Amino acid sequence: MPVSVLSSDPCASALTADHTKTIFGRVENGRRSDSGALGPTCDWSNPDTGAFVSVLYDSTHDGLSSVYAGTKPRAIVWTESAVQGFPAAAHVTNFGGSKDEFCDISVGIVDSASVDIGLTLGRAKVGKSDPCTVDFQIADMVIGNLTHKAGS
Questions:
Q1: CA 97 → CA 33, 77, 118, distances in Å?
Q2: pLDDT band for position 152 (50/70/90)?
Q3: How far is 102 from 106, CA to CA, in rounded Å?
Q4: Which end of the chain is more exposed for a tag (fewer CB within 10 A), N or C?
Q5: What's the pTM?
Q6: Do the Cβ atoms of 58 and 50 come closer than 8 Å?
Q7: How many CA atoms lie within 13 A of 42 on its CB side?
Q8: 43-47, long-range: CB < 8 A, 24+ apart
Q9: Would you list the DSSP string of 25-75?
Q10: In this predicted structure, what is the pLDDT of residue 4?
Q11: Is the pLDDT of residue 66 over 80?
């Protein structure tokens, strides 16, 4: 996938209105912020349930290497997998949140860039759903949208 797909606004390209309806039970609008040197981020939340999703287009030129070097040694949850053929790692550290309610997935789209999808489950789902399993479903949505945008 070309790294140029990460040049767009993540609020417009990461998740569709239908996706946010599936995730939150209603359409939610994202709020963009720029994470300094990391890249643009979009956050979606449902204040009624406490559910939260964040998508970061990480263009630091380190790709998954920085996740393996910086996060894996501190991880209390670490699962390597793939999302639509792209290498991925689900992880939780003591800094991110409880492993019963939070998960972050980093997907390497090229050697130099990744997409990070963070999920906090809604209060009613905590203890009933595995946040990393749910986050892999959301990561699949995001990577599907980016692949479609890239024309792959």
A1: 21, 11, 10
A2: low
A3: 14
A4: C
A5: 0.93
A6: no
A7: 18
A8: 44/15, 44/20, 46/122
A9: SS----EEEE-TTS-EEEEEEETTTTEEEEEEEE-SS-THHHHHHHTGGGE
A10: 87
A11: yes
